[in-house]
Specification:
This protein has 293 residues and is α/β, with parallel strands linked by helices. The protein folds into two domains: 2-120 and 254-291, Rossmann fold (3-Layer(aba) Sandwich); 124-252, 3-Layer(aba) Sandwich (Rossmann fold), CATH 3.40.50. It is 33% helix and 22% strand. The protein is built from eight helices and eleven strands. It has helices at residues 19-31, 48-51, 71-80, 124-136, 158-174, 214-224, 257-267, 275-291; strands spanning 2-8, 36-41, 59-64, 83-84, 100-105, 110-115, 141-151, 179-184, 202-207, 238-240, 243-247. It starts with a strand and ends with a helix. The model has no long low-confidence stretch (mean pLDDT 93).
Amino acid sequence: MQALVIVAHGSHLNPDASTPTYDHADTIREAGVFDEVRTAFWKEEPSFREVLRTVESEEVYVVPLFISEGYFTEEVIPRELRLEGWDLEQWDSDGTSATHATLEAADVDKTIHYCGPVGTHDAMSDVIVRRAETVTGDSEAGEGFALAVVGHGTERNENSAKAVHLHADRIAETGRFDEVKALFMDEDPEIDDVTDFFETTDIVVVPLFIADGYHTQEDIPEDMGLTDDYRTGWETPAEVDGHRIWYAGAVGTEGLTADVVIERAADAGADVGDAIETVRHRTRSDANASAGD
């Protein structure tokens, strides 16, 4: 038997913070490749510390629904899961290249395949592109559009910016969009000046965040000039300084993120059958249906 455990931050204050986690878990359950699919949170129940006790399978794949490598993926989660022998060097990562480490979990007699975060997997670039397709309602969105991949940015964790640059660079290399840039909330280049960085009239803005919350639904829209007060909402697209801004909201709310979770587990040795193709097809259909509403 094999189990999948998706671990995420959650929130005591934002009831929507855990919604993407539950949604992706449901999608993966429907694919039917894991005997068990569980979720666990830092700020909600069930907790990281208790989740492995709810799993019957002896082989467990733990995938962090986090954007970047850092404090939670490197310290908090391994500690709370009681992963014996955990050492950051086992990931042999440059800050964006963590894959997986296989360890034993103390007191539950299970083999844990601890994976890198979804946010640094190459497949997350596809999710960002899908997000652009979803918000524009155009499955071919690219030519005639610029793309801004937005991260928080922080001096406390340089890996936060690395993840944003990783995907912006990968998408730029495909040549799909006229322009692609990485922008940030708390470091240069800042999202406040989004229209200064692009010549293209239509700009799709995709925040590299797992869930919608304070930053994606309040700070960023106001910073970009989409609205003077987030409580009144904004148009999509919104006219700002002679550009049309297509604001997509948090990338982690895109259904295709479930595919990245499965790919992380597959990279660690999970038998996922044709689940990756199934999820890609299903979420594509769902995205097309939403665009047509």
